[in-house]
Amino acid sequence: QVQLEESGGGLVQAGDSLRLSCAASGRTFSSGTMGWFRQAPGKEREFVAGINWTGGSSYYADFVKGRFTISRDNAKKMVYLQMNSLKTEDTAVYYCARNRSPSFTRAIMSREGEYDYWGQGTQVTVSS
């Protein structure tokens, strides 16, 4: 069993930065690949970034490349999403999730169905 809790969201202006955190509980955290997704009002949830269990490899959606960075600290059971140069279109609820697949590929990390545990989400609002 893994429980996930996001924090760090808020209201910022375009161009600002935020760091989201995801606190995990459960014995299998360090062996699981982790991902961040987001859901904007009226839109489907979409993949943002994913990281393998060591933290040495990651994937990003094209719309956040160069602006967002995913990282993890297995000792603390934490996953982070550093978001820089935020845009109004980044406004969404951000979720962290644990991927159940032992493989780490872009296709697997970007598919919602490959994730078995989700947090409740944290709201990020970017104003112009």
Which tags fit this structure?
11 strands; mainly beta; 1 helix; 128 residues; single chain
Set down the secondary structure blueprint:
Blueprint: E1 3-7, E2 10-13, E3 18-25, E4 33-39, E5 46-51, E6 58-60, E7 68-73, E8 78-83, E9 92-99, H1 106-110, E10 115-118, E11 122-127
Parallel strand pairs: 2-11
Antiparallel strand pairs: 1-3, 3-8, 4-5, 4-9, 5-6, 7-8, 9-10, 9-11
Structure write-up:
The protein is mainly β. The protein contains 1 helix and 11 strands. The protein has one helix spanning about 105-110, and strands at about 5, 10-15, 20-25, 35-40, 45-50, 60, 70-75, 80-85, 90-100, 115-120, 120-125. Strands 2, 4, 5, 6, 9, 10 and 11 form a 7-stranded mixed beta sheet that branches. A 4-stranded antiparallel beta sheet has the order 1-3-8-7, with no helix packed on it. The longest helix is centred in the last third of the chain and has 5 residues, at about 105-110.
Helix/strand class: mainly beta
The termini sit apart by 40 Å
Query: Portion of residues in helices?
Result: under 10%
Q: What is the tally of beta strands? A: 11
Q: List the uncertain runs.
A: none
Largest sheet descriptor: 7 strands, mixed
- SSE ordering: EEEEEEEEEHEE
Radius of gyration: 13 Å
Oligomer: single chain
Mean pLDDT, all residues? 94
Shape: globular
Contiguous helical run count: 1
Q: In what range is the share of β-strand residues?
A: over 45%
